Amino acid sequence: MDFATELLSSRRLRTECAVIGVYEHSPLTGVAATLDGALDGRLSRIVKHGDFSGRLGDTLLLPDLGGPIERALLVGMGARKSGSSRHYRRALQAAAQALLKCGATEALMTLACDAYGDIDPYYRARYAAETLLQSHYRIPSLKSGRKPKAPTLTGVRVLAATQTDLTSMKRGLLHGVGIAAGAALSKDLANLPANVCTPTYLGQVAKGLAKEHRRISTRVLAEPELKRLKMGSFLSVTRGSAEPARLIVVEYRGGKAGAAPIALVGKGVTFDTGGISLKDPGAMDEMKFDMTGAASVLGTLKALAVVDAPINAVAIIPACENMPSGRATKPGDIVTSMAGLTIEVLNTDAEGRLILCDALTYSRRFKPAVVIDVATLTGACVIALGAHLSGLMSNDDALANDLLAAGQRAADPCWRMPLGEEYQEQLKSNFADLANIGGREAGAVTAACFLWKFVDGMKWAHLDIAGSAWLGGANKGSTGRPVALLVDYLLARA
Ligand code: BES
Ligand code: MN
Ligand code: ZN
Known about the structure:
With 494 residues, the chain is of the alpha/beta class. The protein has 15 helices and 20 strands. Strands 7, 8, 9, 10, 11, 14, 15, 16 and 18 form a 9-stranded mixed sheet that branches. Strand 19 and strand 20 form a beta hairpin. Helix 3 packs parallel to helix 4, helix 8 packs antiparallel against helix 10 (352-363) and helix 12 crosses helix 15. The two termini are 26 Å apart. The site of ligand BES has 16 residues, from helix 11.
């Protein structure tokens, strides 16, 4: 889908479909009033006769208008004064769904024109692009038979009220397109089954990114190199699997040559059976999503490349399966991490931290300004925060606040949870430097505290996306989170 911005005053009102916001309990104003004029008062009559109330999320398609505006799609915006950025996005979603159902190949979007909800024009445009593109996302289909019809809409002109708005909105659209492309890549990878999306496959996709974007370069390390690097903790997780592990390193260089990069470490467990501490079979299929951290950091780099962001970033992805077998790591086994700390593996299902700690240690060679790990790390985080908020832990208040703010702006929110020595004590072991589990209590916090032991001297944040990364049930599938949060954070730093 192509996006363009256009000034209201230029009034090129010829379109296959004008998308028009209508506010509840209020006369037509702004663009709607202008378009009402072009439509011989049709809109005001519809509102006056009570055929469209403007209730948030309602839509009404007026087809076959027979003039330069071939169709009008009325979108309920709710009460103008209670507008918020949440309501605005709801209205956009409703518009996107209605556009999918009509046959228009081109649309004139006017919802971003109004300052409804006090939203920055940049975000009005960005949300519009993100939402429209998201509505066109389809899960990579492994179904046989006829393919569903592709959406018809290919071009959207987004109307701006002023020249200043137009300039910000142009940027907003570009960034929205980048975020949507990154989120789509992340979703595609996460939605694929684990027999397709293996560590090897993830490595190939990362190499593909380097082919596609000149600022991206990729290196994929295989097991012999991981042994040489002494990644004993990472390797202990892959031991039981027949699929070879990979450490995938993807660099995006858009900033100054010597500028310290932001390191993004993504958990890439392409399938988590739990290992010898085998999981319950109920919903075990969803453990194909246990590489969403990896998918989201790849998606984030893709987004940076699409928008040509002036920043340096590096994604580091430990990728492997967690399987039981005669060779698998057993509860009680002690392994030595790359950092030299020994770890007693009391539960082989707490494998995410075991691969992340070595990847965090590896990230030091890039002397990153900040390191952020992203992981579907604990069921405890799902219990604490549900699907709405990602868990955030950090050893740096400024970094934590930046990520919280980015999450709010990007509509991809997170919530800070604590770290603390008192929790770290739960990780004591009689046999090794630390144990890989800290008991039932505060499971999301003790998991983060485990990682905290490996990031001394670095500005670090941890995003536990176990709840936010995918939906279960009838809508089972990846959400694409937290690509929008990460890209927003990175763009704000750039
Ligand atoms: N990948 C899981 C976490 C998970 C569970 C994410 C359910 C989403 C939904 C992780 O590897 C895991 O198994 N964690 C254990 C840790 C425990 C053994 C300390 C958990 O949360 O049960
Ligand atoms: Mn596990
Ligand atoms: Zn896992």
